[in-house]
Amino acid sequence: MGNILVGTCSWTDPALIGSGWYPSSAGDAEGRLRYYAGRFGLVEVDSTYYGLPSTRNSRLWAERTPDGFVFDVKAFSLLTGHSTRVGSLPAQLRPAGAHANARVRADALGPAAVEEVWRRFADALEPLRAAGRLGAVLMQFPPSLRPGPGAEAFLERCLGRASALGWRTAVEFRDPRWYAPERAAGTADLAKRHGAALVAVDTARGLPASVPPVAAVTAPHLSVVRFHGRSPHWGTGSKEDSYRHRYTGEELAEWVPRIRTLAERTDRVHVLFNNCCGDAAVRAAEAMSDLLE
């Protein structure tokens, strides 16, 4: 497939582990990662959205994967404007008296605390970067981030910080208004200014929360496509309901020309499946690999 890498958004999802896709010989964390990396060249780490990663884990991930294997890493929720569970923050940064299950946003913590979260997140990724295993840092912004001057100012700060750290970044919006006909060109230009890949998304069509399948090239080095499944509960149901979908061959085939076009215009294309329902994501990734080959 040349410069196209295909993978899934997690190799540790409990539903995947329980599906039987991993053989009994891959019975621990090391075995599962080695088995996965023997079949795909790319994976997205999504656990880093829910909690800060550790330097130790990054080092182990690099040691347990072959040369050329790539990790895309999803940015910690606090850094991209999401509400964040207090218990996922370092103890010394938690608001006094706040319950661990309470949620907080960056503006409630203060600049010094947010700066420390950025520092810890960057330090934890350093072993992957140093080993040449860090692909893109996915900056996925919440549905509440709607187009406008305030949102653009936030994006400038966020992407500027990521660029200063030397990361390749991918940007994904969850509010479909970013991709409206009158807005789409401006959204692409915003990503281009920071050399970020504007993520092309596949979701259910025709729902209020549906993001259109816009596949724009905004960075010469990277394009990213993320398949979330086509559940009718996208944007409204539980996580399991929103992502429960098994792609058909026809649904995958319609993306093949778009992916090949992206591959002609960028150095590398990352194709990731996030339909986390049993082994649905790995089976779709296998099928997409076959189609592209």
TrEMBL record:
InterPro entries: DUF72, UPF0759_sf. This is DUF72 domain-containing protein. It comes from Streptomyces chitinivorans.
